[in-house]
What we know:
With 483 residues, this protein is of the alpha+beta class. It contains 19 helices and 24 strands.
Amino acid sequence: MSEICEKCGVTAVYSKGESAARIAYFALSALQHRGQESSGIVTADDGQFFSHRGPGLVAQVYRERDLRKLVGEFAIGHNRYATSGGKHDSHMQPVLRSDDVLALAHNGNLPSVEKLKHFLKSKKIYKAGSNDSEMMADAIRYYIYHGKTIANAIKLSWPLFTGVFSCTLLTEDAIYAFRDRCGVRPLSLGKLRNGYMVASETCAFDMVGARHVRDIKPGELIKIDPKGITSWQIEKSDPKLEVFEFIYFARPDSVLGGKLVNEIRRKMGDQLAIEHPKKVDLVVPVPDSAIPAALGYAYTLGIEFDHVLIKNRYIHRTFIQPTQELRERAVQMKLNPLPEHIRGKSIVLVDDSIVRGTTTKQIVKMLRKAGAKEVHIRVSSPPVRFPDFYGIDTPDQSQLIAARHNLEDIQVHVQADSLAYLSYDGMIKAIGIDESKLCTACFTGQYPIDLMERASEVVFDHPKSSSAENAQNLYTQTTKQLQ
């Protein structure tokens, strides 16, 4: 139910004597939450590449006949979340040119591609309309066509990749994986019975019976082939794992930085209860990512917990456009309250984040309509005041409600009886990883990788004090967004 989305998830598989595509398919199924716009798998066998890509969910894109055609012991896969307004079939990954010697799957984003574009233009190989992932692949291809090994081609291209990347790469006889020096986006290595695999999250390993070996290090490049694993440290590690992976993006059964995500979310709820207790009749989570935090909040305060917002789990991204009336009922299409459990009760509604505020307002309205006596909101993360440039589809800063308005104004807008966020220090304490090893840009505006020309898009002014005029302006603006 969050208003921000991850852009993609990646995997790579080498499995001797088995269909790598079939393993990649199940891995991508486990990573479906990271991207629902399109999916693709590319395999290599006997010097040939085989590709299948399509718009939609993993279960919609692949049929048994598609997997049978994806022959080979090597494969990479990609789930994509496209930016709004983009064509469903544009820039689907893995990237594979018609005359290619490699396929590339990229999770992350390069805030600036000027250096990369300049390089490609200087070599007269720039293709107009290419996105950052396609340009990365073209740069590596250039060096391969000029006699460099795959590893050296990646090393030489590395300085051109000015941003965030967790990538998998396929050649005719090996798979590769590499992360930027900060490792903002996750990437892990797993051991299969007859080989190895790489995936954005460890939950993909559980799906196919692989054992989690370790994380790919920030700044590391690894090669996997029948001989085993070869590793190069291309750039000195400066770990800055994205904090929103713990708050929202990662599946609760994944392990990030040695931490089980579900337990961290539970601790965020514990800490939220300590910082902002409220004695009510019922604690209610916004499903699904806020459930562990809501459990922690309820347990710490000894308050009843209940799933009174029932989620329709078969509502996903769709290419069937709803009518205007149904569009306005988007939240109601996804959530249905249980009035019998709500009527006459005071409620704490726990959510993982508030971005624009439109969804939160609709949920509060829904609970009141179902008979809630009071609705108090508790958020298991700090206010989101800064946009992301590293691979999360956040709106621009002008649409972030906490970037423009203070706590009182936001509370008025969402029509809650009270509103409180988990403190920044409380979030860090709950995660249990040193702050210096986390990317907290959405909360602090401190971007670990240079934004270059896009730095001018960030405003550091704090929201002004509450006023009736501010609240009215906020109400008018966000009401228009709902229409």
